[in-house]
Design goal:
heterodimer; A: mainly beta; 5-stranded antiparallel β-sheet; globular; B: alpha/beta; Glutaredoxin; 6-stranded mixed β-sheet
Chain lengths: ~400, ~160
């Protein structure tokens, strides 16, 4: 009997082995979820993940498919790194040329992680020793890192954190969702101040949108758990002078769901008046929406719907220059995936019909919009057509 | 190569625990249709889940109670984490009574398109569950269905 079982197992192993070989034959390649940033010289920098390492490489000659330099490893010991759609390594470049990278290491306990940080002070030739951003080293959720550097060089790292949920559970108290925590470095990343909480009851599994402004602040937008289990969005400005940041509701889709949407929002600075926001709502009226926040809490209503919901329009990116606004998103079909961009010349009040600006078969990442020498580019990483770098025009 | 070693280890592990975990069947572009075909005339709960989704475990634990009480319902679990996560999937499944469930896992490189192929209106939120009656009229849920609805639905079988 044992012999039969052994033979069965060996056969099964061989079958699976041949299956794996076939599977690797049409190789997936490294994960497509990457981040990009442009330095003062116009060089495009990319953070990606391969085989447990965060890699950083760059390209100076920016053709439609840029050729990147030989990548360097940021972490010297392999880690299990969060790199699937909502999770990806982040890269930001300060005005002085320092390059900052963050990422989430997945730890053995389910849903747990650490947020890591590393910097290069020699223009990307090397990275200093990596370190964990947060002081809390419990093996719990610290995930979905966001990274921003302000014009004067202050670094903000924000993430989704479950320490309050776990503490509440211990005390037998109810607690919805996770929390948004952040840490600041005012010494170019030499060290981070102890982390602080921005808000309780965030969604557990969506990326955070964070942008820096010229006043050394950042604005964050995230999917939040409002009363009754409704997963709309919240927005807050982190202003170190203010004792506790005011959290405002930013969307009103009333999607009530006990699920992980895996679908975070996008945010861009408007004029002096406020911010452009884009997000996905699920449920009966699922789809992609845009609204703007004027002042502290005045949201345009109703939110404007974009894209073809039957082709899963989603995963938005936003960019603005003065009153010009671009909204990019992804749609998929049985055959291929496309990136569409809609343009507004009046601060998001009215929009021109969207255009399909890129198309690929096979797998692809979410779209990103990035400025270089005051021109706007779409960055889209694809399996079959490489990293696409396309100039966006009104 | 690393993936190959993982496969060997997983397979050996599976052989040792076949009675509990069974082998995860590869879920591809035509799998939803073949599952429906294989269980024609039978009520099905088709559960898509991930090891990375806390709500999924709660949902699967609830559904395990339902199928234990109503054994005529065929339970089909499809993990969406991809082939690299085999060991963690099996470890997680040990926490749930799944004796009579069919176990599948996403096995296409392009998981986004596979999801689209399963259901165009499913954007990837998890858990995602499809309740088939015996005529295969389907009710889809993202997240946890209302407890009273679930009880009433299951009571028919």
């Amino acid at each position: 009997m044992k012999a039969i079982k052994l033979t069965f197992c060996i056969t099964l192993i061989m079958l699976l082995a041949s299956n794996v070989s076939a599977h690797e034959g049409h190789d997936h390649g490294p994960p497509l979820a990457v981040s990009v940033a442009v330095d003062a010289q116009g060089r495009l920098w990319r953070a990606s993940v391969k085989d447990g390492f965060v890699l950083v490489d760059s390209a100076l000659s920016l053709t439609q498919v840029p050729t990147f330099s030989k990548p360097i490893k940021v972490n010297l010991q392999a880690q299990k790194i969060g790199v699937d759609s909502e999770a990806r390594p982040k890269i930001a470049i300060a005005k002085n040329g320092y390059i900052y990278v963050t990422w989430t290491q997945a730890l053995p306990t389910p849903y747990s992680g650490y947020i890591w940080f590393a910097r290069s002070i020699d223009g990307g030739k090397s990275f200093e020793a990596v370190k964990v951003v947060h002081q809390d080293k419990a093996e719990i959720t610290h995930r979905f890192d966001a990274l921003s550097v302000t014009p004067s060089g202050r670094i903000y790292v924000a993430w989704v954190d479950k320490r309050d949920l776990i503490q509440s559970k211990k005390l037998g108290k109810p607690y919805d969702g996770a929390a948004i925590y952040y840490a600041i470095s005012d010494n170019q990343g030499t060290s981070f101040q102890p982390e602080q909480k921005l808000a309780d009851s965030s969604c557990e599994c969506c990326r955070i949108a964070m942008i820096a402004d010229e006043k050394d602040r950042v604005v964050l937008m995230w999917r939040h758990l409002f009363e009754g289990g409704v997963r709309d969005h919240a927005i807050a400005t982190l202003n170190l002078e203010a004792s506790s940041p005011a959290v405002h509701r930013a969307s009103f889709g009333h999607w009530k769901v006990d699920a992980c949407p895996h679908h975070g929002p996008a945010l861009a600075r408007g004029g002096e008046w406020g911010y452009h926001m884009a997000w996905f709502d699920g449920g009966e009226k699922s789809g992609l929406f845009y609204a703007r926040m004027d002042g502290d809490a005045w949201v345009t209503s109703p939110a404007k719907r974009f894209g073809n919901a039957s082709q899963q329009a989603g995963h938005p990116a936003l960019a603005s220059q003065g009153e010009s606004v671009w909204l990019a998103w992804k749609e998929i079909s049985e055959q291929d995936s496309t990136i569409q961009i809609a343009f507004s010349s009046d601060g998001g009040r009215s929009w021109e019909p969207p255009k399909v600006v890129a198309r690929t078969q096979g797998k692809s990442d979410y779209p990103q919009l990035i400025s270089k020498n005051s021109e706007l580019y779409l960055v889209w990483n694809t399996q079959l057509d490489g990293l696409q770098f396309l100039k966006v025009t009104p | 190569m690393r993936r190959l070693i993982t496969y060997f280890i997983t397979t050996i592990f599976l052989c040792g625990n076949a009675a509990h975990a069974g082998v995860l069947k590869p879920f591809g572009m035509s799998s939803r249709a073949s599952i429906e075909q294989a269980h024609k005339g039978q009520a099905i709960i088709l559960s898509f889940w991930s090891i990375d989704c806390a709500y999924c475990l709660d949902e699967l634990s609830e559904l395990a109670k339902v199928v234990a009480k109503h054994p005529k319902i065929q339970w089909v679990l499809v993990n969406v984490d991809g082939l690299d996560s085999n060991q963690e999937i099996i470890k997680t499944l040990k926490k749930i009574p799944i004796e009579n469930a069919e176990l599948w896992q996403f096995a296409e490189s392009d998981e986004e398109r596979l999801r689209f192929n399963v259901d165009k209106s499913w954007y990837g939120e998890l858990p995602r569950t499809y309740f088939y009656d015996t005529q295969h009229q389907v009710k889809a849920f993202s997240g946890t269905p209302d407890a009273s609805w679930l009880k009433a639905w299951a009571a028919k079988y």
